[in-house]
Amino acid sequence: MMPFLLAEFAAMEQRLPLYVCIVGSHEQQRIDRPLGYPCHQLFLSRSGSGTVRLEGSPAFSMTPGTVLLLPAGIPHEYFPSDGTEGWDLGFIGFDGPAARAILEPLSPFSRTPFAAVDFPGLWRQLEAVWHGISQNGEQAYWESSQQLYGLLLSVMKDRTAVRSPKKKIYPQEAASDALRTAVRFIHDHYQDRLVVSNIARAAGYSPQHFHRLFVRHYGVSPNQYLLQLRMRRSIQLFREQPGITVEQTAQRLGMETSYFIRLFKRFYGKTPKQYLKSE
């Protein structure tokens, strides 16, 4: 999970031809923008699913492994399609004098989601931009501009990639159905002591094949996905139940308190108590 970051450029936007405005990933909630967004946006849907409506176009869905490029100023709204399963959505907003020229060859692929051939690779590049921006220094913004350019080129390359006819391609929809079953199982039992073999059994795969398939689609292992989900749930518990203790939260998540504290600090850079004081 990459908590929302707003790039504070300190006039860097006057010097960079291409720059990051926002970047992050989270369990997406409803967003309604009747006037559109002031910068261009790239969305990467990692798990769950969402519905997107653009002005003047029919609604469409974003499922795991899909990518959407949305130019600035287009009125839109989007929200989770399934109220019982979180929609894990990565996003990056960008602008700059060079943005329009870069977007021009990508215009045939904008406004409509497409299934990425190398979704994990695109997600890793998104994470690299996030980590760079999180350093919040002038050098980080120069580097993030380079990384953003690389990410957009990768989207173009991915969209126009020609699959080799010699490579055996398995039906992606069938795999996605099984993985969605597995993700629902994780969301329903995240507070239990889950092991990969049980999740794989729910999806109808052997543990080894399931692990490979899960990483290929979501860019993280099943265990990493579970930990990310637990961390998101901990933030929700802190916000929805102000009086809840750290120990109670860990218990709700099915975790030992000391391990929960260490993991929380690894994810958010502060302990749960430090987080609560800053809210």
Q: TL;DR?
A:
It holds the Pfam family HTH_18. Residues 180-278 form the HTH araC/xylS-type domain. The chain is α+β, with helices and mostly antiparallel strands and 279 residues long.
Structure write-up:
This is Helix-turn-helix transcriptional regulator. Keywords: DNA-binding, Transcription, Transcription regulation. Pfam families: AraC_binding, HTH_18. It comes from Cohnella thailandensis. GO terms for molecular function: DNA-binding transcription factor activity; sequence-specific DNA binding. With 279 residues, this protein is an alpha+beta fold. The protein has 3 domains: 5-160, Regulatory protein AraC (Jelly Rolls, Sandwich); 172-219; 224-278, Homeodomain-like (Arc Repressor Mutant, subunit A, Orthogonal Bundle). Helices cover 45% and strands 18% of the residues. It has 10 helices and 10 strands. It has helices at residues 99-103, 119-134, 138-160, 172-188, 196-203, 207-218, 222-240, 246-252, 257-268, 272-278, and strands at residues 5-6, 19-27, 31-33, 40-47, 50-54, 60-62, 66-70, 76-80, 88-95, 114-115. The protein has a 6-stranded antiparallel sheet with strand order 1-2-9-4-7-10, with helices on one face. A 4-stranded antiparallel sheet has the order 3-8-5-6, with no helix packed on it.
Strand content: 15-25%
Note the overall shape.
Answer: globular
**Neighbour order of strands in the largest sheet:** 1-2-9-4-7-10
Order of helices and strands: EEEEEEEEEHEHHHHHHHHH
> Separation of termini?
19 Å
Q: Examine the secondary-structure arrangement and name the CATH architecture of the largest domain.
A: Sandwich
Into which percent range does the helicity of residues fall? 40-55%
CATH class categorisation of the largest domain: Mainly Beta
Stated plainly, the CATH topology of the largest domain is called: Jelly Rolls
Report the biggest beta sheet as strand number plus sense, adding barrel if it closes.
6 strands, antiparallel
Class from secondary-structure proportions:
alpha+beta
Number of strands: 10
Look at the structure and name the CATH superfamily of the largest domain: Regulatory protein AraC
**Number of domain units:** 3
The number of helical elements comes to 10
Spans of 5+ residues with little confidence (pLDDT < 50)?
Answer: 162-173
Question: Taking all residues together, what is the mean pLDDT?
Answer: 82
Radius of gyration: 19 Å
Pfam families: AraC_binding, HTH_18
Keywords: DNA-binding, Transcription, Transcription regulation
GO molecular function, one term: DNA-binding transcription factor activity
Domain HTH araC/xylS-type: 180-278
